[in-house]
Amino acid sequence: MKVLKGAEVSAKIKEEILGQMAGMDGQAPKLAIVRVGERPDDLSYERGAIKKLTGFGLRVQSYAYPADISDREFKEAFDAVNRDPDVSGILLLRPLPEQICEKEIEERIDPAKDLDGISPVNIARVFAGDASGFAPCTAEAVIEILRANEIPIEGKRVTIIGRSMVVGRPLSMLFVRENATVTICHTRTRDLPATCRQAEILVVAAGRAKLVNADHVGQGAIVVDVGIHVDASGKLCGDVDFDSIGERASMATPVPGGVGAVTTAVLAKHLVRAAMKGRVSAD
Ligand code: NAD
C-alpha cells in the first residue's frame, strides 16, 4: 500500500503559490483568524495554520475574543475585520459559543474573503458546480491529494462516509464536478461495510475513531481519511484503522500527516486567490 503523504501535496501547492505571489506587487496577503474562547482544537488548528501560512511567506493575524463575548459585541468586532481592506481572507474557527448566532455570521462574512466556504453564496456556488467561489478547505484538500498524486477521478465510484456541511456534502459536489459517481453514507446507511467495498475511492469523514477497517475496503481501493482523534494513549489517529487496511487498499492517507497538512495549504491557496481578485477589482 502506498502512503499518500500530505507534506508532498502541500509542497506542490506551495510552489504554485510562490509562482503566483511573484507576480503580485506590495505586501503579502493577510489572513485573519477569528477565534472565540480557547478550545484546544481551535488553538491547535490556529497554530498549524499560522505555521503553514507564514512558512509560505503569507501574513496572519489572530483576532481572539473571550468565550463569553455577547452576540452584539462579537458582530461589531467581526464586521470590523470583515471590512478591513488589509485583510484579504478570513478563517472563522467554529463552532462558536451558543450565545452567538453562527448563522448570522455565515451570512455576514464577505463571500470574497470567505476562504473556508461558509457563506451561503459560496455554498451555492459549490453546489452549482461553479468553481469561482471557495469550497471548504478540507473538502478541497481531498481532491488536491488525488490530483497531486495523479489519481484519475473521472468515472470512478467514490463513496464518502459523512454528510456534514463542512466535509461530506460539499465534497460530494466537488467529486460530481470531477465526473465521479458518488455515494454518500451516513448513520442510517444499511450495511456500511458492503456499501464501502464497492468504492474505488473511499473517503472517510465520520468523526468516529477507527470506524473503518479492512472489511470496508475493496481490493485495490484508495482510502482518504479525514478524521482526527486523540486515542487512549494520547496519539493522533483517524477514522480509519490504518494498520488493518494494508492488504486491501492500494493507497491511503495517514493520520497525522495526511489530509490535515493539505487543508492548511488549501487555506493558503485560497488566501492568495482572494488577494489576487481583490487587487484586480481595486484597480
Ligand atoms: P460531523 O460529526 O459533523 O459529521 C459526521 C458525519 O458522519 C455525519 O454526517 C454522520 O451521519 C456520519 N457518521 C457518523 N458516524 C457514522 C457511522 N458510524 N456510520 C456512518 N456514518 C456515520 O463531522 P465533520 O465535521 O464532518 O468531521 C468529520 C471528521 O473529520 C472529524 O473527525 C473531524 O475532526 C475531522 N475533520 C478534519 C479536518 C482536517 O482538516 N483534517 C477538518 C474538519 C474535520
What does this protein structure show overall?
With 283 residues, the chain is an alpha/beta fold. 40% of the residues lie in helices and 16% in strands. It contains 9 helices and 11 strands. The strands form 3 sheets. A 6-stranded parallel sheet has the order 1-11-8-7-5-6. The protein has a 3-stranded parallel sheet with strand order 3-2-4, sandwiched between helices. Helix 2 (40-55) links the parallel strand 2 (30-36) and strand 3 (59-65). Helix 1 packs parallel to helix 9. The mean pLDDT is 97. Bound molecules: nicotinamide-adenine-dinucleotide (NAD). Nicotinamide-adenine-dinucleotide (NAD) is lined by residues 138, 161-164, 166-168, 185-187, 189, 192, 205-208, 211, 226-228, 239, 259-260, 263.
List strands and helices in order, with pairings.
Elements: E1 2-3, H1 6-22, E2 30-36, H2 40-55, E3 59-65, H3 71-83, E4 89-92, H4 102-108, H5 120-127, H6 137-148, E5 157-161, H7 168-177, E6 181-185, H8 192-197, E7 201-204, E8 222-225, E9 229-230, E10 236-237, E11 251-252, H9 259-282
Parallel strand pairs: 1-11, 2-3, 2-4, 5-6, 5-7, 7-8, 8-11
Antiparallel strand pairs: 9-10
The protein binds nicotinamide-adenine-dinucleotide.
Nicotinamide-adenine-dinucleotide (NAD) is lined by residues 138, 161-164, 166-168, 185-187, 189, 192, 205-208, 211, 226-228, 239, 259-260, 263.
